[in-house]
């Protein structure tokens, strides 16, 4: 391994390069500033040395040891010994102690395990800003103690330096991993993690980085091979190592949520044989208990990226979970599950298990499936999944009809379910849910607004609703498709026409359709002569009652024949109706005459017989 040496110090009353062992190498310009006094103003009697630092600089990684130069004529000058290595080679350097002793010319004692663990903890948790070590008595040994456990990649990134005060914004040199500062500088470093006398609580990764043995952590780090890329990788490996003892408990004692958290960490490790083996170990443990976990645990698996082969046992577990639990989920959770089943952002293996179980369930005749499916139709968030998974076949509608007889949907679900019925042209189901959910007088208008084939559902409602409501709604809309269905009802129950009013056009339409469908001409017990007179009066008032007059020609001829305005009736009727009515009236008139003549003859005959008897 190539190590370059250089020395910086006093030259022409300034700080400059004094010597390098290979003059053909152009040293990084930033070394001039880094090898000078630490930034900030020192306090009287304060010791800021040894100012040891390290950093990657251009194509090199540099390590320097700076102390005051007491021999200089100018006060405040320093002398720095520097070692440099090509950046590509520094990762192979196993230890810094020997180099630090060469630069300082004195032994470097190891740092205490507590201080080293505190430094490792601070470095691993540096999200709130670069930490600072207070007290420089063991500063070089702390850096040397951290070095051996760093991966080659991290050694190339490792940087540290001494500073009296925090750097000002806008400086040209990037902040290091860690600062060193003299004791007594605590107030100058507000808001920073500080490594002081009292050790920071060390986690697993920090303890290992500080030199403690950890077989499980090293087992996980093996997934990275000989080089792990950053401190985040070490933190992930430590989290995984925390979970391995949980994974290797007896199966009955496994904690599935903790195993899922472990698997989430394992999938973030680089692909390798070691990683795959650990993942399969976690997957096997989860799969055994997956059918029995709660919904949040099942849901937490949905964004864990696994290959189809690796996820096989979990897919089967998801299928079994849905089969076991989906019918007992509350509606919000069920809607959430169905919506996630078709979210492309979630993992395909998880959605595959959910969809497979739902497809199987939707084809079952089990009543509980039909009841829950009906409720899910009322959940807008579930519609995307239902559009893809629930067959829109007539036999599916038939299975849901029985459930609709037992279920009253609240208003919010009702509208969503109506929309799904319209989308699938399930007219009968639409009518059934209306019949259970809303007031009788609203049902026929709602069904008439159905966007598909209205008739199947309308037939059901006309037969199920009270007859007076059917008649009232038909009078509002006396036309197809309601009118032909309504008159089938009035044929069976002629008393529904008891309030027949010939003066009203809607009643006349219903009456005419009823008669045309084979219904009785008159409501039971009605005063036929009075109704006939009212019908004739309506015609004389300009009503269009041609079909009724034609159908009732034999019943109204008596009224027309004696009506004082009968001459005005004929022009108000069609030619055919007028002709038939005139013919009926003529026949009736002749019959009346014949009866009168016969009556007169009989009367004369009786008188003749009486006279003969008297004689």
Task: Please describe what this structure looks like.
- The protein is an alpha/beta fold.
- Helices cover 53% and strands 8% of the residues.
- It has a five-stranded antiparallel sheet with strand order 2-1-5-4-3.
- Helix 18 (411-424) packs antiparallel against helix 19 (427-437).
- The longest helix has 40 residues, at 575-614.
Topology:
Elements: E1 4-11, E2 14-20, H1 31-34, E3 51-57, E4 60-68, E5 78-86, H2 97-104, H3 113-124, E6 132-134, H4 139-146, H5 152-157, E7 160-162, E8 178-181, E9 194-195, H6 204-209, H7 215-221, H8 231-247, H9 256-266, H10 273-289, H11 295-300, H12 308-325, H13 331-341, H14 348-362, H15 367-377, H16 383-389, H17 394-406, H18 411-424, H19 427-437, H20 440-448, H21 455-464, H22 467-476, H23 482-492, H24 505-516, H25 528-540, H26 546-551, H27 553-562, H28 566-569, H29 575-614
Parallel strand pairs: 6-8, 6-9, 7-8
Antiparallel strand pairs: 1-2, 1-5, 3-4, 4-5
């Amino acid at each position: 391994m190539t190590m370059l040496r250089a020395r910086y110090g006093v030259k022409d009353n300034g700080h400059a390069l004094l010597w390098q062992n290979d003059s053909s190498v152009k040293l990084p310009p930033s070394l001039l500033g880094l090898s000078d006094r630490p930034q900030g103003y020192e306090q009287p009697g304060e010791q800021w040395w040894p100012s040891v630092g390290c950093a990657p600089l251009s194509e090199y990684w540099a390590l320097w040891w700076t102390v005051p130069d007491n021999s200089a004529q100018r006060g405040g000058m320093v002398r720095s010994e520097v070692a440099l290595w090509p950046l590509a080679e520094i990762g192979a350097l196993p230890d810094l102690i020997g180099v630090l002793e060469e630069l300082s010319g004195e032994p470097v004692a190891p740092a205490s395990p507590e201080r080293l663990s505190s430094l490792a903890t601070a470095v691993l948790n540096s999200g709130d800003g670069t930490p600072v070590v207070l007290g420089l008595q063991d500063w070089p040994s702390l850096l040397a103690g951290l070095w051996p456990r760093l991966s080659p990649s991290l050694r190339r990134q490792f940087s540290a330096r001494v500073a009296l005060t925090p750097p000002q914004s806008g400086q040209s040199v990037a902040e290091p991993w860690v600062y060193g500062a003299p004791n007594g500088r605590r107030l100058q470093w507000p808001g920073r993690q500080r490594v002081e006398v009292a050790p920071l609580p060390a986690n697993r990764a920090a303890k290992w980085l500080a030199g403690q043995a950890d077989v499980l952590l090293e087992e996980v780090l093996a997934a990275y091979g000989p080089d792990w890329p950053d401190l985040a990788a070490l933190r992930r490996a430590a989290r995984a190592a925390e979970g391995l003892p949980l994974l290797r408990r007896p199966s009955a004692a496994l904690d599935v949520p903790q195993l899922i958290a472990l698997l989430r960490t394992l999938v973030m490790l680089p692909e390798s044989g070691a990683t795959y083996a650990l993942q399969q170990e976690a997957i096997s443990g989860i799969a055994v208990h997956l059918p029995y976990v709660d919904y949040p645990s099942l849901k937490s698996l949905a964004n864990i990226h696994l290959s189809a082969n690796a996820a096989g046992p979990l897919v089967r577990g998801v299928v079994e979970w849905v089969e076991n639990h989906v019918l007992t989920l509350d509606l919000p959770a069920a809607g959430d599950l169905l919506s996630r089943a078709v979210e492309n952002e979630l993992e395909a293996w998880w959605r595959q298990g959910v969809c497979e179980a739902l497809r199987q369930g939707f084809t079952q005749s089990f009543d509980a499936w039909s009841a829950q499916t009906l409720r899910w139709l009322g959940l807008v968030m579930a519609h995307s999944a239902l559009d893809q998974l629930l067959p829109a076949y007539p036999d599916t509608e038939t299975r849901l009809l029985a459930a609709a007889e037992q279920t009253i949907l609240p208003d919010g679900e009702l509208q969503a379910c109506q929309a799904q019925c319209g989308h699938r042209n399930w007219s009968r189901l639409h009518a059934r849910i209306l019949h259970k959910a809303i007031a009788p007088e609203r049902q026929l208008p709602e069904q008439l607004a159905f966007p598909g084939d209205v008739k199947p559902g309308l037939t059901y409602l006309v037969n199920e609703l009270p007859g007076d409501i059917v008649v009232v709604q038909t009078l509002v809309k006396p036309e197809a498709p309601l009118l032909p269905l309504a008159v089938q009802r009035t044929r069976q129950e002629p008393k529904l026409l008891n309030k027949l009013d010939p003066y009203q056009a809607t009643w006349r339409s219903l009456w005419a359709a009823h008669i045309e469908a084979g219904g009785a001409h008159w409501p039971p017990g009605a005063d036929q002569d009075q109704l006939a007179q009212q019908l004739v009066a309506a015609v004389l008032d300009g009503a269009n009652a041609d079909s009724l007059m034609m159908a009732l020609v034999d019943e109204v001829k008596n009224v027309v024949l004696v009506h004082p305005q009968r001459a005005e009736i004929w022009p108000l009727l069609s030619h055919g109706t007028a002709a038939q009515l005139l013919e009926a009236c003529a026949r009736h008139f002749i019959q009346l005459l014949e009866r009168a003549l016969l009556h007169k003859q009989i009367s004369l005959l009786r008188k003749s017989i009486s006279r003969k008897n008297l004689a």
